[in-house]
Design a protein that fits this description.
The protein has helices spanning 33-37, 44-66, 83-100, 109-115, 160-170, 177-185, 210-225, 229-259, 274-283, 301-309, and strands spanning 2-7, 12-19, 23-31, 73-79, 104-108, 128-133, 138-145, 148-154, 263-267, 287-289. It is α/β, with parallel strands linked by helices. It has 2 domains: 2-115 and 295-330, ATPase, nucleotide binding domain (Nucleotidyltransferase, domain 5), CATH 3.30.420.40; 126-290, Nucleotidyltransferase, domain 5, CATH 3.30.420.40. The protein has a 5-stranded mixed β-sheet with strand order 3-2-1-4-5, with helices on both faces. Strands 8-7-6-9-10 form a 5-stranded mixed β-sheet, sandwiched between helices. The longest helix has 31 residues, at 229-259. Bound molecules: 5'-O-[(R)-(carboxyoxy)(hydroxy)phosphoryl]adenosine and zinc ion. Zinc ion binds next to helix 4. Residues 10, 134-136, 161, 164-165, 176-179, 182, 268-270, 272-273, 297-298 line the site of 5'-O-[(R)-(carboxyoxy)(hydroxy)phosphoryl]adenosine.
Amino acid sequence: MNVLGIETSCDETGVAVYSTESGLVADALHSQVDLHAVYGGVVPEIASRDHIRRLLPLVQQVLTDAGIEQPDAIAYTAGPGLAGALMVGSGLANGLGLAWDCPVIPVHHMEGHLLAPMLEDEPPEFPFLALLVSGGHSMLIAVSGLGEYELLGTTLDDAVGEAFDKSAKLLGLGYPGGPALAALAEDGDDNAYAFPRPMLNRPGFDFSFSGLKTAVMLEVRKAEQAGELEARKADLAASFQRAAVDTLVGRTLQAAKHEGLERIVIAGGVGANRLLRAEMKARFTGQVYYPRMAYCTDNGAMIAVAGALRLNDARQADEIRATARWALDTLARPAAAG
Ligand code: KG4
Ligand code: ZN
């Protein structure tokens, strides 16, 4: 079975073909980063319009690369995300489903991130603890099986990717700031500033990143007033990154211990952060899994593999489903085979 995966929830148009026999057979991505960079963030209307321009040619390209005329099923991101952007992928998926008379599978974007490590040669077995960290989410989830997700903790305010992006903006690093901030941090001293490690001493497994962001803002202002900002930027970036990573790793280890889980999966855009990967590996006694860098940030391959794992949920193309807000722990296990 060949599953076409379509991702258009934010600012990347991702399309891929996943075969249940031979794995990922084709994959293409168009990033809109350049379009949004001038505005300092994603402009939803521009995102929707660019998905419209890019999506069909990318679908044609992956079908050619996979050597097939049409797939056996189409998985698409039905939410959460930007409503207009989601509607582009959903509209095309359902339209093609009708034209090709093949079923469609609405996929939850964060379940796509969560299952991205399944694209690797040594995928994690269930159960595992997932740290899902992206521009919009910071979640710790106990995963006992497909669709069996218990939300242990989430952020009370900003997502960690948002904290990276906002801190990067304060340092004048453009959009998206996460990767740029991580690169600048390489040249800095991560002990230069004692930024807070929010929540680590509180019970439960929630996160909070707005205090950290404010602490960065105050130090940036101080450095600016002293005319030293240029000279201090790398130290600020390194100290922020260290505080954010310490918080994520500390909280994840607390949750893994509490749940008695021996496998940790790191996924989502911030999962591309090298320090986060290295620290988790160094400090956790069990196994740590993460997708390759390209499948941490948004992509079509993770939606295709999630669809392949949820083939039993395939349905006839009908409505243009786009659910902008959609909690991951409301998902159910896939329907029983039938
Ligand atoms: O998963 P993703 O591509 O989109 C969402 O679903 O949000 O995540 C994007 C987020 C952005 O906040 C970006 O700055 C962050 O992931 N990010 C990083 C790195 N690469 C991407 N944050 C820290 N270090 C990185 N290397
Ligand atoms: Zn994402």
